[in-house]
Structure formats: C-alpha cells, structure tokens
Amino acid sequence: MDIHALIEKVQAKLNQIRDLVNQIRSKINGLLSKVPAFLEWVVSKVEDLWNKFCQKMEEFWNWFTDKLAYVGDPFVLKDTGEKWHSELGGPAHRRAGEVEGDDLLVDDTWTGTAATAYKSKIDGQRNALNTIGRLYASSVSSALNTMKSGIWIFWITIVSALVVCALGFIAGIGAEGTIIGIPAGLLAQIAAVVGFLLAAGGATMALKFAADDSATALRNLNSYADKWPSFALG
What we know:
Elements: H1 3-32, H2 40-63, H3 74-98, H4 106-109, H5 113-119, H6 122-175, H7 182-219, H8 230-233
C-alpha cells in the first residue's frame, strides 16, 4: 500500500464518521421529539452531553484542517535514501578501496620529489572518499529513512484511531435506541472522539521527534568538513 492509498482510507473513514454524526443527530432528535413529561430531565442531560459532543467534534475536524494538505511521501524518501547509498555512498566507498599506493601506476613509473609528494596525499584522498561513502551518504540515507518511518507510522496510527473512533460511534448509536440510553450513547461517542484526539496527539509528537532526529542528523553533517584533506580545502 502506498501513501495515497492510505490517505484514501483516512478520507473514507472521515466520510463514514461524518455520516455517523448525521445519524446520531437524526436519531437523538427523533427520540427527543417523543419524550414524555416525566422524562424531561433526560432532555436537559442530553442537551449538555450533545453540546460536549459537538465541542469535541469541532476539535476533531479542526485537527484535520492542515494535515491532509501536507501528507508527505515516505516512498519518495525511501527511494531518495537508497539513491544516496547506491549512487554516492557505494561508489565512493569502492573508489576508496582503489586508492591504494600499491595500486597506482604512478608509483611504478614516477619517482622523485613530486611523486613522493603526490603519494603522501593518497591517505587523505582515501579517507575523504571513505567519509563520503561510510559516513556522509549513510547519514543522509539514515535521516531520510527516519523521516520516512515517522510519516508512515503517523498515518497508520491515524487510520487505526479513526477505525476505533467509528466503532465507538456505532456502539453509541446502538445504545441510543431508547431515550434513557441516549446519555450512555453520547458518553461513549464523546469518549471515542477523546480517544482519537489523544492518539492523534501522540502520533503528532512521534512525528515531530522523527523530524527533529532527521534534522539533527543532517545538521551534524557539517562536522564531516574536517574529514576532507587539507590540500583539497585550499
């Protein structure tokens, strides 16, 4: 499943929840229109719970205000991370293995001061290539993979939380089959929304941690500047 299919599941669940809210409203309105005088106390309690439910639903919809506009694409991050490894890291590491004094033709055909000076720089070149292959490219790839996993886990958590929320709504509708059962049903539905908001908050924090870790790893790449040989820095 790619990220677009996952987002389609999110949107489908949101549509289901929107329909369930309409069902809840219609069912409660229908029952309250038939409340006998001796159950007027139920109406007041239902109104209070309905207002709380509406407040939580407002928080629910507000949470989604900007989330679907910036979905992210973990597979693009994965592919990019793999390219950093396969197209830069791997070749640089292999080339570092080729930069050996005994393997360079110049050591057999070129002698003197210039040859000695050139040979003295072989270690610096090899270390720089190893830095690119083993450290720099690997660090970028790892940072991208961390962000990829963070985005993927975030949306899987949101889909799962929406499924649980919808089930809570359905259970509440079942309890709202009678006037006396409406408060219990609304309490279950309020709890379902609160549960989603808590799960969404946790998922958001986890995503932030992943983003912070990735950003820190990329910023730390500056520390590799001293791995370049001095003759290459001028």
